Automatic annotation (TrEMBL):
Keywords: DNA damage, DNA repair, DNA-directed DNA polymerase, Nucleotidyltransferase, Transferase. It catalyses: DNA(n) + a 2'-deoxyribonucleoside 5'-triphosphate = DNA(n+1) + diphosphate. The keyword Nucleotidyltransferase applies. Gene3D superfamilies: 5' to 3' exonuclease, C-terminal subdomain, Beta Polymerase, domain 2, DNA polymerase beta, N-terminal domain-like, DNA polymerase, thumb domain, Metal-dependent hydrolases. Residues 336-415 form the Polymerase/histidinol phosphatase N-terminal domain. It is an enzyme of class 2 (transferase). One of its GO terms (biological process) is DNA repair. The lineage of its organism: Bacteria, Bacillati, Bacillota, Bacilli, Bacillales. GO terms for molecular function: DNA binding; DNA-directed DNA polymerase activity; phosphoric ester hydrolase activity; zinc ion binding. Residues 1-314 form the DNA-directed DNA polymerase X domain. GO terms for cellular component: cytosol. Its EC number is 2.7.7.7. This is DNA-directed DNA polymerase. InterPro entries: DNA-dir_DNA_pol_X (IPR002054), DNA_pol_lamdba_lyase_dom_sf (IPR027421), DNA_Pol_thumb_sf (IPR037160), DNA_pol_X_beta-like (IPR002008), HHH_MUS81 (IPR010996), NT_sf (IPR043519), PHP_dom (IPR004013), PHP_phosphatase (IPR050243).
């Protein structure tokens, strides 16, 4: 386990103990230990003896070591076994936390969503001290929300589901080739159901095998060309498998990749040539002859088009763009990542460990951009700690001659429009990211005033997550994105394409506008853990959807060109 995971486990232990009714002395020992770890700038590997930290006693130190070395802890496992399973999801309900759930369990013997609902409806919950009629109402509303599946789920959730499923698909026999299709292949922000195309020889055998996949809770359809299943996960998820012979694989894949609007355009192109496209191939309407294709690429070529990446099949202008050779951006064009966190704020690894992780992904440069002091929950850095961190970053950077570690900060733009860090310190950093993490409900005017303060500042290079949304969960703040795009271009500031699949702002539609305004885009993972560095793949897919080209994307530059961009803003403002 890395530091972030250990801190989470310690907090979970505290909550579970609270639910069980253990005394506050015990629970607060775990909370204190979590805090002590959080406050320390070193990663877990670097803290040899956790008991040496103030706030960590012998007992909790042993638990930390156990978690670090084995990924598990005896106390936590025992607690999990003791607590009714149904209570755990209640902890995530809006308005409920450890203390409230503990009370519900201990005083009303509530053990799951059903018993909670019943207690609310019969008015028992409002009688508990610290609860009231309003709380009761809110709990009922939250229970309702949690029970129903939204029609479309965030791509982050569906990607995880798909990866789990594909692990199993790879183990199936009798499949010649297979591919993702539908909205997930197109990397839409939200996805309704999963689609796969399978090239099979013996349909019957595969049909049976599919129904034995893990988590299958219902068979919705079971035919010779289509098997639809329902998986029971934290939400029910439908998966459509199209079974085809190998000759029709490419056209079936194209057909069921969509989008619907893209397919309409393709059909029109064929029609104008006296042909008809179907999932089985392209039919000449006169001779009735059907041509099949070995790949989607061959299919597009036949229609006079270059290969259109699935992400770009929006039914916008892609069938015009791809009449000529056209290059968007590929993962292999990406040379670095400018937004990530370390144990100095709320990240999982130290500067040095993070550098190793980024370098092992084939990158040439990176920037460490921890939070600034306004973000107290993330243990943000003040001026003094920034200066110390710069020294640390320079030390790590010295180790490499093929890799550059830049010193940066993710600085808060405070609610009143002031910037969180003094100019004198900002000017010593290589990269400054500015972002809004507070007062999201301000008027558009106030939000734009805040963003403008950052745009106009000579040291600010990037505005991070420029809308602040969380897909499926939170709308974000009210920014005038068009103006933001224009002003960013004017001032030599880049806007972030946040690669985290829960965020993905800017959206594809706005990125497409960025082509017109000629705004530089920085694809940033905003990684807090090493695994999150892999979100670069998702960010790149998002850029592809908008048909962005290499030149517009900061990450495709080599270190010298990157530095030229970063320093360009200072020079421009000094003129
Ligand atoms: P969603 O709503 O996130 O599942 O989006 P898609 O695009 O995956 O939609 P889906 O699963 O209904 O269908 C997959 C693709 O199949 C869709 O993009 C277009 C294509 N398609 C071709 N013919 C049909 C049809 O008759 N019905 C539907 N629903 N899709 C079709
Ligand atoms: Ca679908
Ligand atoms: Ca489908
Ligand atoms: Zn960040």
């Amino acid at each position: 386990m890395n530091k972030k995971e250990v801190i989470q486990a310690l907090e979970t232990i505290a909550v579970y103990m609270e639910i069980k009714g253990e005394n506050t002395f015990k629970t607060s020992a775990y909370r204190k230990a979590a805090q002590a770890l959080e406050q320390d700038e070193r990663s877990l590997a670097e803290i040899e003896n956790p008991a040496s930290l103030s706030g960590i006693g012998k007992g909790t130190a042993a638990v930390i070591q156990e978690l670090r070395d084995t990924g598990q802890a005896g106390v936590l496992e025992t607690l999990k076994a003791d607590i009714p399973e149904g209570l755990i999801p209640l902890l995530d309900l809006q308005g409920l936390g450890g203390r409230k759930v503990a009370k519900l369990y201990q005083e009303l013997q509530i053990t799951d969503a059903a018993s909670l609902k019943q207690a609310c409806e019969s008015g028992h919950v409002r009688e508990l001290s610290g609860f009231g009629a309003k709380t009761e109402e809110k709990i009922l509303a939250a229970l309702e929300d949690a029970g129903s599946r939204p029609e479309r789920l965030p791509v982050a959730f569906m990607l995880e589901t798909a990866e789990m499923l594909e692990e199993a698909i790879r183990g199936l026999t009798g499949i010649k080739r297979w591919a993702r299709a539908g909205s997930l292949r197109r990397m839409e922000e939200t996805v309704k159901d999963l689609d796969y195309i399978l090239s099979v020889e013996n349909t019957d055998a595969v049909r049976t095998e599919l129904q034995e996949l893990p988590h299958v809770s219902a068979v919705i359809a079971d035919g010779a060309s289509k098997v639809s299943l329902e998986l029971a996960l934290s939400y029910p998820v439908q998966v459509d498998f199209r079974l085809t012979d190998d000759d029709a694989f490419a056209t079936t894949l194209h057909h069921f990749t969509g989008s619907k609007d893209h397919n309409v355009q393709i059909r029109q192109i064929a029609k104008s040539r006296g042909e008809r496209v179907s999932e089985y191939g392209i039919e000449n309407l006169e001779s009735k002859e059907v041509t099949s294709f070995s790949s989607e690429e061959a299919f597009f070529h036949y229609l006079g088009l270059y290969y259109i990446p699935p992400e770009a099949r929006r039914g916008a202008d892609e069938t015009i763009t791809y009449q000529q050779p056209y290059e968007t951006v590929e993962r292999s064009d990406i040379k670095g990542d400018l937004h990530m966190h370390t144990t100095w704020s709320d990240g999982a690894l130290s500067v040095e460990e993070m550098a190793e992780e980024v370098r092992s992904r084939g990158h040439e440069w990176m920037a460490v951009t921890d939070h600034s002091k306004f973000l107290q929950v993330a243990h943000g850095l003040d001026e003094e700690r920034i200066l110390r961190q710069i020294e640390e970053i320079r030390r790590v950077n010295e180790k490499y001659d093929d890799f550059t570690v830049l010193a940066g900060i993710e600085m808060d733009i405070r609610p009143d429009g002031t910037l969180d860090i003094e100019d004198e310190v900002l000017s010593q950093l290589d990269v400054v990211i500015a972002s809004i993490h507070s007062s999201f409900s301000q008027s558009r005017e106030d939000i734009m005033m805040r963003l403008d303060a950052a745009l106009q500042h000579p040291s600010v290079n990037i505005i991070a997550h420029p809308t602040g949304r969380l897909i499926g969960r939170r709308e974000g703040y009210d920014a005038d994105v068009q103006t933001l795009l224009e002003k960013a271009a004017e001032t030599g500031t880049a806007l972030e394409l946040n690669a985290n699949p829960n965020r993905l702002d800017l959206s594809a539609a706005w990125l497409r506008k960025a082509v017109e305004t000629n705004t530089v885009i920085s694809i940033n993972t905003d990684a807090h853990t090493p695994k999150m560095l892999d979100h670069m793949e998702i960010g790149t897919a998002s850029a592809k959807k908008a048909l962005l080209q290499k030149e517009q994307i900061l990450n495709t530059r080599n270190i010298d060109d990157l530095r030229a961009f970063l320093e360009g803003k200072k020079e421009r403002t000094e003129r």
